[in-house]
Amino acid sequence: MDASLRQLLEKMPKAELHMHIEGSLEPELIFALAERNGVTLKYSSVDELRRAYAFTDLQSFLDIYYAGASVLLKEQDFYDMTRAYLGRAHADNVRHAELFFDPQTHTERGVDFGTVISGIHRALQDAATEWGMSGALIMCFLRHLSEEDAFATLEQALPYRDKFIGVGLDSSERGHPPEKFARVFARCRELGLRLVAHAGEEGPPEYIRTALDVLKVERIDHGVRCLEDAELTQRLARDKVPLTVCPLSNVKLRVFDRAADHNLQRLLDAGLTVTINSDDPAYFGGYVNDNFTEMFSVLPLDQRHARQLARDSFAASFLPEQDKRRLMAEVDAFFAQ
Ligand SMILES: [Zn+2]
């Protein structure tokens, strides 16, 4: 890739809207936290753990992801994990980050909900103070668990309502359609929470449709399989429903065989509102700028696409309108230089 295009991608202001904070745990930090907390890992070294990151599908990744998260016990652990991610995002010129967290991964191990959210939230506050970087939290329900479990998690979350802005749906998609969570999403909607869901990553386009119609989500996480359904694609374009796309994740989890096979360009050509994100950066080979540079290296994308993706990352965010306008104006000023 052209050096000036690379520099543009790296330096441009951007938002990241699809990343799971537990997926930012680097093997070095997993080992450091394991030692600090006296947790025994089934991997003998950082290298052995990193070698286990050769995934074949979503489930093989999730198995290691949950093992990695087992070292998180105290509020400071959640703070340190979040702080490490935010530092990397800041270096990638991320100006606003909306982070997913998976409380059930921790509460089912006996870690208190308040411990989890307080540590993550404190790191977001420090990033705002030190770097002027805004952030928000979206609580995800694990879709392989029951809707009853999701309701119980929502109950635990309500005393901390001021610390998160919305809810999402993640974990194993196949066999767990959005409509399984119809009632809990309806309740979250009544509570004024913003709604998103993973759909159309490994699951069929139909899951995107039910996420919209039954759960009434405002954004689709992944959604790359929408192109299999022309009518759905037209609807997403017409209604400007953002798709938070994660290219390196899609390649690692074999949604596409190679980066060059990714349908990002076709999504853009279809008039969809698309953003680029890292998903689980420690596990999938890179942070948000790595995702941008990989896609622009292998697909015929240019400066106009870069500008559009940067603007849409803010447009698709849950920031107040005036903040969106200010940040999009910064993107325009950056590209005018
Ligand atoms: Zn995800």
UniProtKB/TrEMBL annotation:
Q: How is the cofactor bound?
A: Binds 1 zinc ion per subunit.
Instruction: Name its co-factor(s).
Output: Zn(2+)
Q: Which residues are Zn(2+)-binding?
A: H18, H20, H198, D279
Q: Which organism is it from?
A: Noviherbaspirillum aridicola
Binding annotation for substrate: D280
Gene for this protein? Answer: add
Please give the NCBIfam families that the UniProt record associates with this protein: aden_deam, PRK09358.1-6
This protein is called Adenine deaminase
Q: Which Pfam families match?
A: A_deaminase
Q: Report the active site residues.
A: E201 (proton donor)
Which family does this protein fall into?
A: Belongs to the metallo-dependent hydrolases superfamily. Adenosine and AMP deaminases family. Adenine deaminase type 2 subfamily.
